[in-house]
Every structure is written in C-alpha cells, then in structure tokens.
Amino acid sequence: MATQDQLMKLCFVTVGATASFNLLIQSILEQSFLRELRAHGYTHLLIQYGQDGKPLFDEFLRQYPPGSEGHHGLLIDGFDFNPDGLSYEMRLAKAWSSEGRVGGLIISHAGSGSIMDALRLGVPLVVVPNPTLKDNHQQELADILQEQGYLIAGQYWDLTTSLDRAEHLRVKMAHWPPISKDQQTSQPSLDQVMCDELGFLD
Fold this sequence. Notes:
CATH topology: Rossmann fold
CATH architecture: 3-Layer(aba) Sandwich
Low-confidence stretches: none
Number of helices: 8
Number of domains: 1
Radius of gyration: 17 Å
Organism: Aspergillus homomorphus (strain CBS 101889)
Shape: globular
EC number: 2.4.1.141
Number of strands: 6
Distance between the termini: 41 Å
Main location: endoplasmic reticulum
Mean pLDDT: 87
Family: Belongs to the glycosyltransferase 28 family.
CATH superfamily: Glycogen Phosphorylase B
Subcellular location: Endoplasmic reticulum
CATH class: Alpha Beta
C-alpha cells in the first residue's frame, strides 16, 4: 500500500487534436505555475501539447532537464496526440487508491468533447478558452458551465489562481450534475447546456 507521500497527484493538460494552443502550453510551463502546482501537492504533470506544441515542450526540457530545479519536484511528460483518444490519460487524474493515486486535475481547451469526457470522470476541470480561434463559442460555453457549477473557467494568463478554485470545486463535487441551492431541482444537464449554447455536440 502506497503511503500518502508516495501517492501520485496528476495534472493532465490537453489542447485537443486540431487547433494549436501554444499560449496555454507556454503558461503551463511557466516557473510560477509549476511552483504553484507543486505547492498544491501535485507530483506529476502530463501535457498533450498538440500538433505544434512539441518545440515549446522540447525547449523547456532543454532549458530545464528532468530532475533540475526548474521541474520543482514534478515528473513532467508530454506527447502530441493519441489516436485512441485521451480517456486513459484523463483517468490518471482520478483518485484510485489501489493504484496509488489521489484526485488530480484536468486542464483543457474548451472543446465540448473534451469537456464531456473530463466531467464524466468526476475530476475537477479547468477549461481555458483559446482566444486565437475565430467565430467560436468557447468563452460563452466555459462561462455558462462555470455558472452552473460544472467546472472552472480559466484564462491562460492566470492559471495559478485556477488551482485554488479547482480545489474548492473538488469539495463541492459530491453530486454531478451539481444540485441547485434549494437542493430540489437539478441544474440543466451538460447535454442541455451545450445544445442551448452551441446547437450541437461535437
């Protein structure tokens, strides 16, 4: 049985399979964010950096080799894309005592498919809209899902504050979907919210 000090607490970051989101990758690899991640008890950082993010990740490893102070005690790994999907990587952020894991965190771009996959696991989710995309509803979707209590709507330039907010969300996640204040009427389902906001699910 793993001791508390040996348990893995993983932050998984995904930018999705299509659009680049280098602003998010750069922010994740900032020293201030890594330091704060470690301060919140995280032991592992796994980044799905997408089709154009590999140079950023490789440059980080060149500047801060594994085991150096720049990793802040975190085990950091990354990959571009998994053709089989990300369900395995997302599950690594779910608490599972028999496998030596405590509950972690998922940080995702605001694609509806990624959001639904993450929320089905009952893991705190920080959604970061990509401001470089044109004519998309990412910010609106993130805002309304945060308002309903499903997730944290974050910004790529202020991820450290999202860590505190995610821990508060974890405490409130005993029920999913969230229950309204009167404890009688459930909030709209995720499918309903997405259909209302986008008109479809991807």
